Amino acid sequence: MKDYQVSFNTFVEDNNLRYSGLGIGLVLEGELSLMLNHEMSTIRPGELFILNHKALIECHNQSALTVMVQLEQSFIKKYVHDFNHFQYVLSSNTEAQDHLKNIIARMGINAIRHEQNEALMNDQLSLSLLQHSMQSFEKLKTQSINEGEARVEQIVQFIDSHYDEVLSLEILSDALNLSPTYISKLFSKSMDMGLHQYINHVRLQHAKEDLVNTDLSMTDIAMNNGFLNTSSFSRAFKQYEHCSPSSYRANYQQEIAPINKPYEVHDKYLIHLLSDYLSHEQSFLEPMNMDKRIHRMQLNAPTVKLRPFKHIVQIGDLKNVLIGSYQEQLLASKDEITLERILVTDIIGSQIITSDVQTDEKIPHSHKYYQVDACIDFLVKHQIGLTVTVKPTIAFEAYKSAFKDLYQHIAMRLMHGKDLNLKLYFKQIPPRQIEILLDIVQHYFKDLKIDVFVELDGARRTDFEALKAFEASIDLFVFDANQNDLVDFDSMSDAGFQKAKNLILNKTNDLIAQMKQSGIVKPLALLNWNTLTGNTMLTNGEYFRGGIIFEQFIQLNQMIDYIGYWLNYDLHMSQCVTNHDYLNSIELFHQYHGKRPAYFTSFLFQKLRGEILFQNKECLITGHADHFQVVVFDAVHYNPHLTLHEHLNRSVYHEAVIKDLLPSTYRVKHYTLDKEHGALYKVWQAFNTSQGIDRESIAYINRISYPKFEVEERIVTQDLNLQLMMQTNAIHLFDVKRMR
Length: 740
Fold this sequence. Notes:
Blueprint: E1 4-8, E2 16-18, E3 22-29, E4 32-36, E5 39-43, E6 48-51, E7 56-61, E8 65-71, H1 73-79, E9 88-89, H2 94-113, H3 118-136, E10 138-139, H4 147-162, H5 169-176, H6 180-191, H7 195-213, H8 218-224, H9 230-241, H10 245-252, H11 267-275, H12 286-289, E11 291-298, E12 310-316, H13 324-337, E13 339-344, H14 370-381, E14 385-390, H15 396-413, E15 422-426, H16 431-444, E16 449-453, E17 474-482, H17 494-500, H18 503-518, E18 524-530, H19 537-542, H20 546-556, E19 562-568, H21 569-574, E20 587-589, H22 597-605, E21 612-615, E22 619-624, E23 627-633, E24 651-659, E25 664-673, H23 680-687, H24 695-704, E26 708-716, E27 720-727, E28 731-739
Parallel strand pairs: 11-24, 12-13, 12-19, 13-14, 14-15, 15-16, 16-17, 17-18, 18-19, 19-20
Antiparallel strand pairs: 1-8, 2-7, 3-6, 3-8, 4-5, 4-7, 9-10, 21-22, 22-23, 23-28, 24-27, 25-26, 25-28
Helix pairs in contact: 2-3, 2-11, 4-6, 5-6, 15-16, 20-22, 23-24
């Protein structure tokens, strides 16, 4: 068995139990009534309780919600050799109790979250729990161990070591050189239970682990744990657990083995309760919690060149181009993340086209397309491309007439030598209608290209054969991929989140395979997409995802040309019909022009240049020997509902060693994007009030919500060592340039 067990709601009402090891529990909600060694105790929310080794326990009230850490006797005796000589009671020292609550809460949270390092962290925490327990618990007066108690301890240890073998009074008698009658009477008197009852108890504890953690048959589990056959196993199981082994497995077995929670409690609610006991002062845990990773890298011969992404940004109605604040956002995006074009909804039928003016003038002084003209002038001036969605919502003949009128006007309106980078975007429109409209617009824009949406799922899956009629005009295939579509947020299971993390890559590979099979191969644009996030405003904001987005960029770099975003929160929300619609894409800006982490992730990715010189799962080096970029990032996919408390964020020490550089002085720029630097939501919440945020606060928030930036000169004789502290899903980028 493991050195410790973490469980929730361990007790079964009216069930007598002889405890093994040392248990330290915390009541989270309700009251717990326990009979301990024939004395009644009532434990209230926020109170700790101790279960001593060999204590007789009877539960009289199972309505309480508790978390329990059971330290196994064999584990304790590695460090506390006289453990069995004492009974332990809680100290009245509140600081010591707070330390214990902190450790228990952390172990409970780790057990719920199923993080990759959960087992290691809890192994470390269990040792810390033992250390603080031994330091803070008061010990009852030393009990001299008489010969009988020593014999009982021998019997218990023998059973614990040989539970999976045939055991009987005769076998114990031979092994311990004691008479069967003496063993039976001594054990029953000391343990308040029969020898056979204790053997079954030990075997069933191991069998329950096998039921939950393995797919072994009932026969194998029975035989592996010392039962003669499945009948005796099933009979004993029902007697002590009040259900059949198969029912127990059905209730508690998941893809990731669950902790023991006999009645349904949402994990996010448990996280909420446990978080109240997390201490802000963690210095006594830091040496054990601190992970450390060293990356040794060398500038290798380049094998592939990193491709900079082009960005297409959705803004809804073309009329939004006329809003000054949105213009500022577009220009910032063009300057810092290489925005190439915007995508707008269909101009025909939108409010940007005004009604015809009733006038006696031969030519009206005001034209119905004057706002369209103003938008195009801005885009042409700043060399931002325009992609217009084509989506007829009226009878096709009427739409065709309006379509011809609009694009004739745009063609005639453009000044000589001032080209508009114009494209049309067709989504879920019959191929024949695409051909007709394409013929019309190419009469005025002879080299105009179109983007075509590709449906990869379900009955509406795109027929590539139907696209061959206008294959030469297709510039891009556009597709969507939202990891959140695969997740049931109500289930609280991490399994769905683990499956969803590869959705974008899988869909991209699927589309590439379809293109090759059809013979139509075009560049790709990932338009509406999202990484794993929360399905509420709180979880979406709290769940920092910079490193996950960066990981997607690296995986997709040689496969996709365009990455899509929404310009800002307000424009995105204006197009959402349901709450789930908000999960379908990512914005660059929040309200009041604050830049979101996705913006800064793209900003950092654009700083990578040239050839890839080194790459592994956590690191990337690009550039050349005299000027290169080193990226170290964290990408952890897990249920955002289980990460709402800021103290759950881990910090990992990383050291990146770039070997065998030319001896010289190097300028090193260090960019840090994490929850403390560049995560707008945390700062926003800190300044928010019930009456909103005033202008001074907004300006301050936007000034400080940036990645951390540091510059230094380093003298390098051979190796360059870069140290950093990595928060969850953070990105660290070092720009290293040799000074000649």
